[in-house]
Amino acid sequence: MDALLARRRVPDRARVRHMAGALEPLLWMADCLAGAVVASRIGDPGYIKRLDGRIEIHYIGP
Prior knowledge:
Layout (H helix, E strand, L loop, with lengths): L1 H5 L18 H17 L4 H5 L12
């Protein structure tokens, strides 16, 4: 953030606030989705199937 502020890539009023993961439930969602994708890729599609129709996965690269 300091580098972005120094290069004027973000407004001066931009700030980052760190919180413990337990205090921010939206962080759990990203972890859960990432875990479901990884599980699917290693042969356990059960979690991804539960999310069928609710998420969209885009593959980038080879």
